[in-house]
Write a structure and sequence with these properties.
single chain; six-stranded mixed sheet; 17% strand; 233 residues; 10 strands; 8 helices; two-stranded antiparallel ribbon
């Protein structure tokens, strides 16, 4: 059993989906506190200036709760802005018509909701479907775990009887590798080698949202994602 654990992210990058694809189970870390200036509620897409941010404006939940699954969207005006940005920047890409309207419909369906996690995870399920990734997904908020940081990650692994944890590269900064070894859980650190692909521009821009790859390469996107796969012991 290989498990990946990641905070939710809006329009995530390629490496986010590579970890999910490689895992036997993915856990959305939705009950921890929101990190400002992270990629939880924003990401980058192509633009005439190189790239631009698409960001969901969010605020604390009831009683100032900053848990990700309690965060609320400030409004729904951002939906029209993001749709306009996608149309302006990707309308001439080869697979724009295959995905654009479906993504728009999903966002528009959520116009009456200010529930941040509901919106983000609905979009990500759609994107996983486009890519053909069928890894089962559960949510940390369902596991009733109170530990934090490295202990939380280990407890999630143990609760799911995982033998391998697929960590992000920054996991080396906070994971207690000795304790994982004590419980016979092996850590594999992702060192994703971002693949180049055709963006219909002279200079390739890496680390953009998955929609950049989808609009440009459609059904070949998962194969391209897997080209960058690299995990270190």
């Amino acid at each position: 059993m290989k498990i990946s654990i990641n905070q939710p992210a809006y329009f995530p990058w390629l490496g986010y989906f590579d970890r999910i694809d490689y895992a036997d189970l993915h856990v959305v870390l939705d009950h921890v506190q929101f990190e400002k200036n992270s990629f939880i509620n924003r990401n980058r897409i192509i633009s005439n200036q190189g790239f631009q941010w698409v960001t969901i404006p969010i605020t604390k939940g009831e009683n100032g709760d900053k848990s990700i699954n309690k965060m609320r969207c400030l409004n729904n005006k951002w939906i029209d802005t993001h749709i306009k940005s996608m149309r302006q920047n990707y309308s001439k890409t080869p697979f724009f018509s295959d995905y654009f309207e479906v993504i728009c419909d999903k966002l528009i369906d959520k116009k009456d909701s200010l529930n941040f996690i509901d919106i983000v995870e609905s979009v990500n399920k759609l994107l996983l479907g486009f890519l053909g990734i069928n890894t089962p997904i559960i949510y940390s908020s369902e596991l009733n775990l109170s530990s934090r940081k490295s202990d939380l990650v280990l407890d999630i692994c143990l609760s799911q009887k995982a033998k391998f944890y697929l960590s992000g590269v920054n996991g080396k900064d906070y994971l207690n590798e000795g304790k994982f070894k004590q419980y016979d859980v092996k850590i594999l650190f992702q060192s994703y080698q971002h693949p180049n692909y055709n963006q219909n521009r002279d200079e390739f821009i890496p680390f953009l949202s998955i929609i950049d790859l989808l609009f440009n390469h459609g059904p070949d996107s998962l194969e391209i994602i897997r080209k960058g796969r690299n995990f270190l012991k």
